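Render this sequence as a predicted structure.
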Amino acid sequence: MRQKIVAGNWKMNLTYPAALALTDEITALLAEAPAGPAQPLVVVCPPFPFLAGVGEKLPKGGPLHLGAQNCHQKESGAFTGEVSAPMLASVGCEYVILGHSERRQHFREDDALLGQKLKTALAAGLKPIFCVGESLETREADDTFAFIAKQLKDGLFHLSNEEFAQVVVAYEPIWAIGTGKTATSAQAQEVHAFIREQVARAYTADAAASVSILYGGSANAQNARELFGQPDVDGGLIGGASLKAPDFVAIIRSF
């Protein structure tokens, strides 16, 4: 059975005290009621300066896991202002988001660079959450599937079978991020099923059946249950709603 995952991407938000308070509130709300067998794995991804402090607050052996929003492609060196995968692992990170649409757009990260980051993250023992997704222009041109297939092929499918088994994929319809728009459950399912089909072609049917594919396009407490009910949607990469503990926990409970 595939791992169900809800990951909160806090982006460049909050102050350190606010981040610690949000962590406490999420933890408390999750502890209020029994999780049940459908409890997904939960990842919180704070900004770099907050990682160690947030990580120390996560209950050991609990449902919450620590992730980062990015890492550099080199393990160390003269790269002022950057953060390496081994650094992230050393403060307790288990996951790292790579290839987020905002990194691709604002920082010009391409699939060749992301391929290097994947290798570095995996070597440090991190599990990458690798993002793919199309713009509104690409969707309206009816080029969604060719575009995503290329992102997968160029950025991800160079990994070995063993490496790929450590990866989580996130589908981000860029036109639905921060816009209030959301792909319909049918649209999300269609693309998730396509991604799974591409994995089967590049690797094996077992790999395709095992990989967790998350939806990352403005999922919220109101639409999460329907989205997560689709057969190929294994959870969500949550942006704005992850900054409000009641909303984030409601999304987690949608399973």
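Summary. The beta strands are 5-9, 41-45, 64-68, 95-98, 127-132, 168-171, 213-215, 235-238. The first helix runs from residue 16 to 32.
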